Amino acid sequence: MTDQPYTADPPELRRSLGVLDGIAVAASSTAATTSIGIGLGVTAGVVGLHLPAVMLLAFLPVLGIAGAYSRLNRVEPNAGNGYVWVGRSLNPWLGFMVGWVNIVATVAFLAYTTAVTGSAILQLAGEAGVHRIGSLALDPGSTAQTTAVGIVVLVAVTLTAVTGIRTAARLQTGLLVFEYVVLLGFCGYGIVTGPHPFSLSWFDPFAIPSATALAQGLLLSVFCYWGFEAAFSVNEEVRDPRDASRAGLITLVTMLGLFLLGSVAFQRVLSERELAGHGAQGLAFFGDRLASQPWAALPLVALMFSAVASLQAGVIPTARGMFAMSRDRTLGPVWSRVSARYGTPAAGTLLIGALAVAVAALALVIPRLADMIMATVNAVGIVVALSYALTALAAAARFRSLLREDWRQGVRAVVLPALSALALLGLGGYLGWSFYTSADHFEVSADNGWFLLTTPLVMIASGFVAAGWAKYVRRSPYFCTGEGTDADAPQLLSTPN
Fold first, then answer.
1. pLDDT (tens digit, 9 = 90+) per residue, 243-276?
2. Which pLDDT score, from 0 to 100, does residue 485 have?
3. How far apart, in Å, are the Cα atoms of 312 and each of 79, 109, 307, 343, 434?
4. Contact 248, 229 (CB under 8 A)
5. Peptide bond before 294: cis, by omega within 30 degrees of 0?
6. Is the distance from CB of 412 to CB of 403 less than 8 angstroms?
């Protein structure tokens, strides 16, 4: 077959964003309100009353990962970020794997968040006294109902994302301000007035029941931090690439503060059984314990806003990552088509939304929302840990010469990312082994270890299939160099194999 470039000149994304826009995208993608309202309850079901401990402990390797992203972004800003950095510094197959697992993990996240958004809307309807539509009883715990409502919202935010990040960032900034005001107000009030006494043991990771619980709790917490790197996916659309680094680090530190505040507040207000037993309704239950209506509905409104913003923020960086991969011919040409009107990868954005809708519909095989959330979070946690670890190892490999030139810089650029990577790889491997040994048969259930292990393995295995297609059928030059294309390097697109 002939090896022709997709375009004679790779399209450019418009550079129109500042650091605050990057923070809005990254903070919305991390979705602190959703993580607090749902993730804390899921994590408490594993680690008990030690949420502050695992949130603080998980922050340490993620901070090392953020440092790796920031340093790599300074020397090679690219919308593909980890996909390009790992491909160049380690191996193109591993680089493709980073790009691929980020795509499939985000699509799974969008499917899960679609149901969360629908659940929040149905809960608000219940608070307003609407419990039935005709003969249908509304159930915010039903995956079918929540997915149907959430898909309508997903379609709407996808269409908004097509018009440009600036428009999306403005919307997300408004939603974030409301969310954080509500979070700070309710969590602060809960810390002051909660009936359960504060205990320093909440910060003691050694008091967690087992090593398996600690490993699972840490990966669930890593999942909560996941999304800060969305700032690096728009680094070709910020006026100064250093703004992407600042936005990512500011977002990460802000998330730590919010997660610690939320975990302490929840444990002051709710018992361990209440924490673990309310799942997707955790934040609404928290609000009901602190205030009467209509004020008690404010946390639920904040959760809905957070879910809506994270849906949009999930679509945006994924479309940019696939845009970068398409420039290198590792994915099809449709992903790198840039709208002449909006200066965005409009076709790719619409396709990401369509894929998320399809996966959300497939999730209906797990009938209860709480089970679907647990299965998705565990699977995504493992593949995100793998992606983070490979990116950190890429930074350690690229900057290893600093160990000889300046040991202080070397420690920050090489040692800390390498240690963070090893910690995440160890956690993921241990958790995968514990899933394997916890069951003797397979069934589609969030309580089945083989199902929980199979899901991330399928995500990873599908990446090798897609990489083989890109190398041997599309004949992408990326697999010869590991280097990514940007708007200043049109020659890579036309380099023959």
1. 777 777 888 889 999 999 999 999 999 888 887 7
2. 67
3. 17, 12, 9, 17, 34
4. yes
5. yes
6. no
